[in-house]
Write a structure and sequence with these properties.
heterodimer, A: 302 residues, alpha/beta, Rossmann fold, 2 domains, 5-stranded parallel sheet, 4-stranded parallel sheet, 9 helices, B: 154 residues, mainly beta, Alpha-Beta Plaits, SH3 type barrels, 5-stranded antiparallel sheet, binds zinc ion
Chain lengths: 302, 154
């Protein structure tokens, strides 16, 4: 039997992505469906992430399922030194599905090997966060009407930003072209450029935002974090360079949408929020529909 | 037969000869093949033997022991040029080279300090690739690459 866990975005094929897009659209039209009646979903958050946990729990509730779990480990036996293995073994006796977030990389893959029930990875350290990627895809599909032949411009921390790497891999099935805008220290790693070259996918690299965002269909913004810089002076130099301001959108395409995996710090100026090209708050709303779709697919209930 | 060159270690009647091991990898090969845990087999080895190819090499002879290919291929990580001679009745009946296995399980460390395998008792698991002559291990858990010098083969 094929393990239906979703640990990495590469666990899904192009057909799987398209299936999720379709299911998410159905849930958007009709969000309350009692598909999970009698099912229990565990949400195990070994590190806190309120936004992700609430959107999963909202998804389960709208599907008529029950949620159990923890939102941080301070009140649990994990803080007494229980191993991940024992926690997963135990919880997989109580739940039909485990949604987990863990600070260590590879934790979700390991859990999927020892769990009796499927695992959905809601983030394992800096490694993978596939449901974020699928909701990004859904936001792109919804705003552009298609995933095919789009110009995706990614801005900010392209070196460590896991959402950037996942989105790049997932979009590679849809004949995109990319523009990567990042400070020298946070450029896209070579392995991803090799990946794009092997697939004959066009990309360009820039260090400045304007005017390089003008031909984009999607502007995907990420946080530039102080702790990523070995030299704090370098951070001070670039921290205000990768900030999107409303005036910079004047010459962008009418269909362009700005995405951001949130929370933002200062990389999108608040004067952008009311621009119809801003989409990051709606993007967060799409999280519930997308996660409803992923839960149902994982449990093979549709 | 290379018997003349390896006179320093006596011939065996039946078993396996592992030649062209870099001298510094001898003890790793012994432990990878669990030779230190064999009950009855006679194991002899030569250490710091002169070699044109390797500078100093080592050789191991294990009597009455024939390994699975998959077992022997593990040593490719520390002795990529190792040559194997299968001996039956004092004759070499088969020669082969080791090849880097596609998967490496439980014998290397992941160099990512935030990898789950460095925090829980989990046998590590890697897929291998070779870039520019160097073996690279990609962790099946955290997806990060570890080069062979940092893999701390055990
Ligand atoms: Zn690892």
């Amino acid at each position: 039997m094929k393990n239906r866990s979703l640990v990495a975005i590469s666990d899904y094929s192009k057909d799987d992505y398209l299936e999720i897009m379709e299911l998410a659209a159905q849930f958007e039209k009709n969000p309350v469906q009692k598909i999970l009646d009698g099912k229990v979903v565990a949400t195990l958050f070994f590190e806190p992430s309120t936004r992700t946990r609430l959107s999963f729990e909202s998804a389960v509730n709208r599907l008529g399922g029950k949620v159990l779990g923890f939102s941080d480990t301070s009140q649990t036996s994990v803080s007494k030194g229980e191993t991940l293995k024992d926690t997963i073994k135990m919880v997989s006796c109580y739940a039909d599905l485990i949604v987990m977030r863990h600070p260590l990389e590879g934790a979700a893959r390991y859990a999927s090997e020892i769990s009796k029930v499927p695992i959905i990875n809601a983030g394992d350290g800096a490694n993978q966060h596939p449901t974020q990627c699928l909701l990004d895809l859904y936001s792109i599909k919804k705003t552009q009407g298609t995933l095919d032949n789009l110009k995706i411009t990614m801005v900010g921390d392209l070196k460590y930003g896991r959402t950037v790497h996942s989105l790049l891999m997932a979009m590679s099935y849809f004949n995109p072209s990319f523009s990567f805008i990042a400070p020298e220290e946070l450029r896209l790693p070579d392995e991803y450029k090799q990946f794009l070259k092997q697939r004959n996918i066009k990309f360009e690299e820039h260090t400045e935002m304007a005017p390089n965002i003008n031909d984009a269909d999607i502007i995907y913004m990420t946080r530039v974090q102080r702790e990523r810089f070995a030299d704090p002076l370098e951070y001070e130099k670039v921290k205000n360079v990768y900030v999107l301001r409303n005036s910079m959108l004047d010459n962008t395409k009418p269909n362009v949408k700005i995405l951001h995996p949130l929370p933002r710090v200062n990389e999108i100026s608040t004067d952008v929020d009311d621009n119809p090209k801003a989409y990051y708050f709606e993007q967060a709303q799409n999280a519930v529909y997308t996660r409803q779709a992923i839960i149902c697919k994982t449990l093979q209930l549709l | 037969m290379e018997n003349e060159k390896v006179l320093s270690v006596s011939a065996i009647e039946n078993g396996t000869v592992i030649d062209h091991i870099p001298a510094q990898s001898l003890f790793k090969v012994i432990s990878l093949l669990n030779l230190d845990k064999l009950a009855d087999n006679q194991v002899t080895f030569g250490y710091n033997l002169k070699s044109k190819q390797l500078g100093m090499k080592a050789i191991i002879k294990v009597s009455e022991k024939f390994f699975e290919d998959i077992e022997l291929d593990k040593i490719a990580l520390v002795a990529p040029n190792a040559k194997l001679n299968i001996i039956k009745n004092y004759n070499v009946v088969e020669k082969r080279l080791v090849k880097v296995p596609e998967k490496v399980i439980g014998i290397a460390h992941c160099m990512n300090p935030k990898c789950i395998t460095n925090h829980e008792k989990i046998p590590t698991k890697f897929t291998t690739s070779t870039t520019g002559g160097n073996i690279v291990l990609r962790c099946c858990y955290c997806d990060k690459c570890t080069d062979i010098e940092h893999a701390e083969i055990f």
